[in-house]
């Protein structure tokens, strides 16, 4: 049975952020993820993880200036020093939260940027990040994200349906980048929602990438709502993950259509939701 983690930037937004740990635990989750821990002191987050018996399984390295349109720095030429400086706070939080997986975001690339230069920058920065985190026992992952959609207007912070201009958009490209970096500390993160938006062939892609796959996220298509809403057959994919021996977590990174607990009806067979209380 897949192991599900609650994404606290998407779920339980009915309550303030620091109260979402308790809400996730009460709904049966044993792990959480979220994009940006840096708005809270590590001790605050650690205390809530411990109090509610939760494990932190994924967060993002600093993305730059979100309000100004940054969506990561790793593939952005000219910002290499800023990217490398951002790894230290990510390492601090990873160690404090006992989280061994950090997502390093490529960033949005404008139309005037040389694509080959962006790729070289990306490869070099990822090689540096992989080497930086390896002695700490922290693995890094990269994720293809669709570039056609953007932030959810009026939604909670950091909730998106895509990222305009994002550099990494396909699982094959991610594999090529990982091969170029040639590090034993760089892996793949696949969001099934983005996979369906970008390329389809979901079962085939999951099978083909199992060797590099360290994290999976889910949401319905279209709309990025509950996984039982839309065109993806998630029960089949959950069985497939078991069949192929996937050992990582499955992050619930979707926008509930109404209240989080109401929308968790899909997860009751897995011991999650209101029935777990």
Task: Write out key terms for the chains shown.
277 residues; alpha/beta; TIM Barrel; eight-stranded parallel barrel; 34% helix
Describe what this molecule looks like in 3D:
The protein has 9 helices and 8 strands. It has a single domain, classed as TIM Barrel (Alpha-Beta Barrel). The chain has helices spanning 20-26, 42-51, 80-96, 115-133, 171-181, 192-198, 202-208, 234-244, 260-263, and strands at 3-7, 31-33, 55-60, 101-103, 139-142, 186-191, 213-218, 249-252. The longest helix has 19 residues, at 115-133. By secondary structure, it is α/β, with parallel strands linked by helices. Helix 4 crosses helix 5.
Short description:
With 277 residues, this protein is an alpha/beta fold. The protein contains nine helices and eight strands. Strands 1-2-3-4-5-6-7-8 form an eight-stranded parallel β-barrel, surrounded by four helices.
The H/E string reads EHEHEHEHEHEHHEHEH
Major sheet summary line: 8 strands, parallel, barrel
> Which stretches are low in confidence, meaning pLDDT under 50 for 5 or more residues running?
none
Separation of termini? 20 Å
Helical content, roughly?
25-40%
Task: List the topology elements.
Blueprint: E1 3-7, H1 20-26, E2 31-33, H2 42-51, E3 55-60, H3 80-96, E4 101-103, H4 115-133, E5 139-142, H5 171-181, E6 186-191, H6 192-198, H7 202-208, E7 213-218, H8 234-244, E8 249-252, H9 260-263
Parallel strand pairs: 1-2, 1-8, 2-3, 3-4, 4-5, 5-6, 6-7, 7-8
Helix pairs in contact: 3-4, 4-5, 7-8
């Amino acid at each position: 049975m897949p192991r599900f983690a609650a994404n606290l930037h998407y779920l339980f937004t009915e309550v303030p952020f620091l109260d979402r740990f308790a809400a996730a635990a009460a709904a049966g989750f044993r792990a959480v993820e979220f994009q940006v821990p840096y708005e809270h002191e590590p001790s605050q987050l650690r205390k809530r993880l411990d109090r509610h018996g939760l494990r932190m399984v994924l967060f993002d390295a600093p993305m730059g200036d979100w309000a100004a349109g940054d969506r990561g720095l790793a593939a952005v030429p000219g910002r290499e020093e800023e990217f490398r400086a951002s790894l230290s706070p990510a390492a601090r939080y990873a160690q404090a939260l006992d989280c061994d997986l950090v997502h390093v975001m490529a960033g949005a690339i404008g139309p005037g940027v040389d694509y080959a230069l962006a790729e070289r920058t990306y490869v070099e920065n990822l090689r540096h990040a992989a080497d930086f985190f390896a002695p700490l026992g922290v693995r890094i992952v990269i994720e293809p994200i669709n570039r056609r959609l953007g932030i959810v207007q009026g939604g909670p912070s950091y909730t998106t349906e895509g990222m305009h201009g994002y550099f990494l958009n396909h699982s094959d490209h991610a594999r090529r980048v990982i091969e170029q970096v040639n590090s034993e500390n760089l892996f793949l993160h696949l969001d099934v929602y983005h996979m369906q938006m970008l390329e389809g062939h979901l079962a085939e892609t999951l099978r083909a990438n199992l060797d590099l796959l360290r994290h999976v996220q889910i949401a319905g298509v279209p709309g990025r709502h509950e996984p039982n809403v839309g065109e993806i057959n998630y029960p089949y994919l959950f069985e497939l993950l078991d069949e192929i021996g996937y050992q990582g977590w499955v992050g619930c990174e979707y926008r509930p259509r109404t209240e989080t607990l109401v929308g968790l009806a899909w997860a009751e067979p897995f011991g999650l939701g209101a029935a777990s209380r």
